[in-house]
Amino acid sequence: MMLDIRDLSVVFTDRGEEKPFTAVDKFSLQMDRGEIVGIVGESGSGKSMTAHALMGLIRRSQVSVTGSALFEGADLLSLSREELRRYQGRDLSIIFQEPMTSLNPTMRIGKQVEESLRIHERLSPAERKARALEAMALAGLPGPEGLYRQYPHQLSGGMRQRVMIASALVLRPRLLIADEPTTALDVTIQAQILETLKDINRREGTAILFISHDLGVVRALCGRVVVMKQGKIVESGPADQVFRHPREDYTKLLIASRPARKKLKGGQQDG
User: Fold this and answer.
1) Cα 202 from Cα 268, distance rounded (Å)
2) Distances (CA, A) of 1 to 33, 149, 178, 204
3) What is the pLDDT of residues 151-203, one digit of tens each?
4) Residue 131 in contact with residue 144, Cβ under 8 Å?
5) 0.85 exceeded by the pTM?
């Protein structure tokens, strides 16, 4: 087992006169190497907060994070900031929803893809560039050599998201957390990004924890799905089973309320 999360809870404690707020409540999940698991739920259900807790992106001064998250035997929740930094990017990587808020507008694309290499590995500039170009090609960016010297504003939304994927893959992590990576993209570009993630999973054996409120996207990509409501898991199981025969009323409501859309290329009917 690659990842074993037990009773992960995230509670906002410093709320003045208001009562503490539980954003994630005893979340448990086990993942094997090479598996693709989806987490779905409405906005505010705790999906992204779960990912941020795993990546150490929550300020502990105002938030209580409890439970355990064993990644290859190391508890991510108990590591110091310095210890966790050794895992970030190298073994664990995250793709965020909006590339323009994550990419540096004043830095060329290639240098941003190389950033993790500069932090974690001792390589010559030529070696870093070669690795960056390889990751860009793996992420489906056409003509990496030409894009290497461009800036984020010169690329389309889909291309910028591929740059984020390349940045996350440059160190070949064992687990990739994708937090709403296709939300801002049209359905055609979504399908292309999903195919890229599937290809990365097949070729590299990278496990993917895919977070989305879009059930059609999750069904097209994931073998297993977890449904969250108000910080808690209300249903989980094989994706096809959950979508075809949901047990919980909340899951049925999510499925019934999603808009009908075109079939996602390479996946299930979305609608």
Assistant:
1) 18
2) 7, 40, 20, 17
3) 999 999 889 999 999 999 999 999 999 998 887 778 888 888 899 999 999 99
4) no
5) yes
